[in-house]
Structures are given as C-alpha cells and as structure tokens.
C-alpha cells in the first residue's frame, strides 16, 4: 500500500485485507499480456450480490468478457457500459443474470425515494437522481424470472446494440449455486 | 439449461460454456447459507474490464461484499447501487478501484455521443441518455489516478453515504496484477 496516503494506523481491516490478498494474487497473475478488448467478445450483466463470484460461477476465464454489476443486475442501469463494451471493445453478446433472494425484491422505487429523503434529505435524493436515471430499478412487485425477461426485452428492443447481438437471460439460484435460463 | 427456451442448435458457445462451467461450480458451491447482506459490510466499485477477477484479485471471499462494476468503475454510475447497498443491506465502507490501460481513457464524452449517433442513430443516443445520467464518464483527458481521486471526492461530498463511511481509491495495474492506493 502506498505509504504516502495513509499510515497503517488509520487503515481499515478491509483495506489491509485487500492489500494482503492482492499481494499474494499478483505473484501468480496471468493477465499481463491480455488486451483491453475481451477475448471472447461478450459481456455479463449481473447483480452486485456478495454470493456471486462471477468467474468460477459462470465458467469464465481471465480476459474472456466484460463484467457489469449493479444492484439487481439492471439492464437499463448497465446500458451505458454495454454500449461502450460493444462499440469500443468489440463485444457481440450479452448474458444477463439476475438471482434469487435479491435485495431489489424487498422494496419498490417510491419506497426507496421516501427512505432516502427521510434518512439523507431531499438533496441526497436529487444527487442520486442526477447521477443516474432517477430510477432505483427495484422489482418489489415482480418475480425475478419476469424481471429478467423484461430486461432482456428492453435490451433487444433498445436499438442501442449492434446488429445481430445475442441476448440471453438467466437466474442464479443462491441456494444451489446453479443458473437456469429464462429468456 | 432449461430445454424449453432454446434447443441446443441455437445456443451460442458462450451460453453452453456458462452452463457447463456453472454445473461444475454448483457441485462445490458454498453460498447456500449466506444472507443477502454482505458479511463484511463493504462494497467494491470497479471497472467491467475482463482482466479483473475481483474475488481473488482483491482478497475477497464469498459473502464478504457487494461488487459494483461498470465501464470505467465510475462512482457516479455506481451511486444508485451504493446507496441501496448501504441503506438496505447495511454496508459502511466503499473501496473504489480503477485500473491502468482502461478503455475509458480512449475517448471523451462528446466523441462517444458522436460515435453512437453515427452508428446507431439519434434515438439510440437518446435511449442511452434516458437509461442513465446522459454522461459516458469517459476520462480521455485525465490520468487514471486523477480520475480515481475525483470519484472518491465525489462520493465523500455527495451527501448520499451514511455518516462515517470509509471511502478509499485504488488503481489496479493490469500488467502486474497489483493494486496501489491513490486516495
């Protein structure tokens, strides 16, 4: 860790473990000759959920694919990144994977608006809206299979993907570690 | 793979490898008893880059942390997810990690606007804008260390994080596999 930024005294445990774990990882790192564009020309969009270790869980290897992750694995939230992935880095397929027991099933957009305004104030809510689309992309009123299909439909009909892009939708079962295809 | 969705004949190689790799992974999956809220109460924000295998590279274990990934590891793009992570799933620390040789250094926002309009039309550009903030968060005019510090400053001054949130900024060197702290 760069000693000029923080002394160990005000470094958190998480930061220390990142530095220690990464130091070990770097000794056998194999990515040094990989290009910026993904070798297998696809991108994965999935949730930020802590139970999803994307590379082994989805049969991927270093350099294969872009990995876009956000709360709920929202395709709309991911659209900017997908377009950059396709137009600047030549990917041609999108794999969208939501999962069971997702936090985004626990609330709706109006509830999240009210929650944030109450806890952090009107200005915080406005800042989040301006930083994104103004939507939380919660699916408290939907089942995850349905939310996945809707996101796949959104991408296919968006007009933003390159012609012939393959888009498929999957659900990862956090109790079994298994994916099933739903779209 | 659910046989009712697609016959093997029109399944892509990427989809087949996902299914095969995941089937093997599921046999030794250890996440079945983990809760939705991350055990170590932090979230990582990083780039979608294919050379970043987050769990081993950043010393993480299944269930530890949320992982938010987008083109460039943009904090603004990640803000919706960070707020959900904190307010609904109790995380209290943000680790922001950009990386060297990032695709987002290759262009600027006006260049991306012009590129998409030319290739996919005005409506596609409008759809991407509406799905997000209207920004590409490219840093073609900035060095990655500087872009990382700016994003950390944005988060700290956003007013959107819970009080006392620890935010640090790091850069992953894709040629060495090593992180260094820059903020």
Proportion of residues in helical segments of chain A: 25-40%
Q: Sketch the major β-sheet of chain A.
A: 5 strands, mixed
CATH class of the largest domain in chain A: Alpha Beta
CATH superfamily of the largest domain in chain A: Carbonic anhydrase
Radius of gyration of chain A, in angstroms, nearest whole number: 19 Å
Strand content bin of chain A:
15-25%
Number of helices of chain A: 6
| Order of secondary-structure elements of chain A | HEHEHEHHHEE
Question: Architecture of the largest domain in chain A, according to CATH?
Answer: 3-Layer(aba) Sandwich
Kindly describe this structure:
Chains A, B: Its cofactor is Zn(2+). Chains A, B: InterPro entries: Carbonic_anhydrase (IPR001765), Carbonic_anhydrase_sf (IPR036874). Chains A, B: Keywords: Lyase, Metal-binding, Zinc. Chains A, B: Reversible hydration of carbon dioxide. The structure is a homodimer. The first copy, chain A, has helices at about 15-25, 55, 75-90, 110-120, 120-130, 145-155; strands at about 40-45, 65-70, 95-100, 165-175, 180. With about 180 residues, chain A is of the alpha/beta class. Chain A folds into 2 domains: about 1-30, no CATH class; about 40-180, 3-Layer(aba) Sandwich (Beta-carbonic Anhydrase, Chain A). The first copy, chain A, has a 5-stranded mixed β-sheet. In chain A, a hairpin with a 4-residue loop joins strand 4 (about 165-175) and strand 5. The mean pLDDT of chain A is about 95. Chains A and B meet through helix 1, helix 2, strand 2, helix 3 and helix 4 of A and helix 1, helix 2, strand 2, helix 3 and helix 4 of B.
């Amino acid at each position: 860790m760069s000693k000029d930024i923080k002394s160990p005294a005000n470094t958190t445990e998480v930061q220390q473990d990142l530095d220690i774990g990464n130091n070990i990882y770097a000794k056998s790192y194999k990515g040094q000759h990989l290009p910026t564009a993904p070798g297998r020309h696809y991108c994965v969009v999935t949730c930020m959920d802590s139970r999803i270790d994307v590379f082994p869980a989805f049969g991927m290897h270093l350099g294969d694919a872009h990995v876009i992750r956000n709360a709920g694995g929202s395709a709309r939230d991911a659209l900017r990144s997908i377009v950059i992935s396709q137009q600047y880095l030549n990917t041609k397929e999108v794999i969208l994977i939501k999962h069971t027991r997702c936090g985004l099933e626990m609330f709706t957009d109006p509830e999240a608006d009210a929650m944030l305004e109450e806890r952090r104030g009107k200005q915080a809510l406005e800042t989040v809206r301006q930083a994104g689309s103004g939507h939380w992309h919660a699916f408290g009123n939907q089942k995850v299979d349905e939310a996945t299909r809707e996101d796949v439909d959104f991408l296919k009909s968006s007009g933003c993907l390159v012609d012939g892009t393959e888009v498929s939708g999957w659900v990862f079962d956090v109790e079994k570690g298994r994916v099933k295809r739903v779209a």
